[in-house]
Amino acid sequence: MSTSYSPDQPQQSQSWFGPETEAALHAVVPNVMPEQSLALYARWWQLEAWLRELIYVELRALHGARWIDELRAASGRQSQDGAFSHMSTADSENPLAYLDYSQLLPIIDIHWDQLQYALLERKSWDGRQEELKRVRHRIGHIRRPHRDDLARIEQTLRDLERGAFIACASYNRRMAPRSGKFTDPVTTGWIAAEHPTAQRLIRHAEMQYGVSLDVEVSRRPWATWPNSLESVKGVLWHVDFFLRDRAVNVSALWNATRSIRSLIVHLHVSDPHHAGFTFSAADDAKAISDAVGLCFDAVLHASRRGHGAQGITDMDDRVLTEWRNRAESIDYRIMSRSGWYIVDESTIPISMFGAGGAVEILPNW
Q1: Whether residue 223 sits in one domain with residue 122
Q2: Does residue 8 contact residue 351 with C-beta atoms inside 8 Å?
Q3: Same structural domain for residues 20 and 153?
Q4: Whole-angstrom Cα distance, residue 284 to residue 232?
């Protein structure tokens, strides 16, 4: 899941396409596929992908690992797809990826209290859906678009700019809980360093490996700050490891965290020298505290000095892009270029979707 966003600054002109993509586009557009259809598909992808990301984060913050119980409609398609393991993709374990757009709408309706801040006024949102579903049907059935279809989607994206900014910026508005105020297992275990693994690794990792740890929390816009951080809805834990002289092998790291994967909301790897885990405070606090310890061990075991773990000697833009592409191809929870980790109050002015809209003044939430 990666959010498309563009800061309000000049963009360099360059092609992001590999040779295979260039060849396919040259063969198909415009001789077989109208240019407008390609643009329409790209914008729809952007819109629907964003709504899936938004639903995912809010359901994880609300329900923790039990979020999947809200998506039973996806189980049939997902199990059928699972039979073709040789064709699995990063989305294969994401139940939201198996729901049609029309199936996303009831989920949004049920969880309107958690999602409304990022959407339109309720009547406007409901009224917009019939037109959007018509556009989606045209795309799905390879019908030529109406001349106003692209404009309809781009207007919706512009209307969602403010909410998308708040969604991502609130994710990155973080604070470190005071160990004297909060007594939950994560705070006492990792901020007060009372967890056995914390006592074993924090100082040792810093001195011997140049690996440091940062533990913070953020609050979703629909929640209020609680008096306790134990099994609370609407709060996310952010556990970041910074590697001064070492590089993470993302595939090895992800494999090493298999036993706690149901607790992981996101794994963020912006570059080989950082690994950030997000957990939902709605889950059992002791389980999260123990998971942080497992992640700590996994980061140390899945990293090597320099860039050797990835075969990288010079992290220029091209190599970094390839590294990020490989990381994001592993699992839908792995992020490397996502607005969930980039957008904050300092990135204004910003266009979240690049569809003609922008957030120029910091909104309240």
Answers
A1: no
A2: yes
A3: yes
A4: 9
Question: What tokens were used for 221?
Answer: 């816009």
Question: CA angle 103-223-65, nearest 5°?
Answer: 55
pLDDT string in tens for the chain (365-residue length): 445 555 544 444 455 677 878 787 877 777 777 788 899 999 999 999 999 999 999 999 999 999 999 886 545 554 555 555 555 666 678 899 989 999 999 999 999 999 999 999 999 999 999 999 999 999 988 888 889 999 999 999 999 999 999 999 999 999 999 998 999 999 999 999 999 999 999 999 999 999 999 999 999 999 999 999 999 999 999 999 999 999 999 999 999 999 999 999 999 999 999 999 999 999 999 999 999 999 999 999 999 986 544 444 456 888 888 999 999 999 999 999 899 999 999 999 999 999 999 999 999 98
What distance lies between CA 39 and its chain's CA centroid?
24
- Rounded distance, CA 26 to CA 20, Å? 10
Q: Do both 246 and 295 map to the same domain?
A: yes
Return d(Cα 62, Cα 169) in angstroms, integer.
Answer: 18
Asked if 262 and 294 touch (Cβ cutoff 8 Å), the reply is: no
| Domain coverage including residue 133 | 6-171
Rounded alpha-carbon distances, angstroms, from residue 265 to 6, 180, 212, 262, 282: 24, 27, 21, 8, 11
Domain count of the fold of the chain: 2
Phi, psi angle pair for 353, to nearest 5°: -120, -10
**Whole-number Å distance between alpha carbons of 194 and 60:** 27
347 is a domain residue: no
Which residues have a Cβ under 8 Å from the Cβ of 332 and sit 6 or more positions away?
Answer: 1, 90, 91, 93, 94, 97
| Position 353 in a domain | no
Please state, in angstroms and rounded to a whole number, the distance separating the CA atoms of residues 267 and 279.
9
Residue 121: helix, strand or coil by DSSP?
A: coil
The answer on 15 and 85 residing in a single domain is yes
Residue type, 272: P
3-state secondary structure of 33: coil
Check whether residue 192 and residue 289 sit in a common domain. Answer: yes
Residue 351 in domain = no
Indicate whether 124 and 260 sit together in one domain. Answer: no
